[in-house]
Amino acid sequence: MKAILIPVVLALVGVGGGIGAGLMLGAGPEEDGADSEDAAPDQGGANDAAPSQEDLVNTDEIEFARLSNQFIVPVVRAEEVDALVVLSLTLEVTPGGTEVVFSNEPRLRDRMLSVLFDHANTGGFDSNFTETATREKLRNGLREAAKRVLGDVLVDVLIVDIVRQDV
Questions:
Q1: Alpha helices (H) along 104-153
Q2: Is residue 14 part of a domain?
């Protein structure tokens, strides 16, 4: 039992430290070298796609509720932990919905963890788990689970961060 527990704890500490260092060292908007007043306007090219209706959501009509803790999902193969996947999720909700999210967070996390474990057990975090179709399948499952808890308060589920660490 200790032989399995020690690598899992070390992996969690390593992933947490890496994420923490990334957040601490990440460049802020003032450091990216582009000043919004001096930036040249987009000239628009033949390859530019028109923004979709989904991209044009009025941000006055939604709020973002970032779930306080990350989700840690073990990827089990041959009855051993093969990898850990760490996700951060944010929920788009209707105005005033953040209070509903945080008051139902334990039940919401339970339902979302069930979806994440099922996704891991069906191979969703194997190989190219960042592929669009795979991410959309996961997002749809998370959205359905959150909708069962929050109802019409939920607008969408955003996968903000996702990291896989092989053990």
A1: 105-121, 132-150
A2: no
Contacts of residue 80, Cβ cutoff 8 Å, sequence gap at least 6: 4
- Adjacent-strand bridge partners of 88: 161
Q: Which residue segment(s) compose the domain that 105 sits in?
A: 60-166
| pTM as predicted | 0.64
* Helix/strand/coil percentages in the chain, nearest 5: 50, 25, 30
Q: Tell me the per-residue pLDDT of 26-72, one tens digit each, with 9 for 90 and over.
A: 544 444 444 444 444 444 444 445 555 555 556 668 999 999 899 99
What domain count does the chain have? Answer: 1
Count the residues in the chain: 167
Closest by CA to 162, choosing from 2, 7, 22, is 22
Contact 145, 114 (CB under 8 A): yes
- Closest by alpha carbon to 163, among 112, 87, 90? 87
- Assign residue 118 the CATH number of its domain: 3.30.479
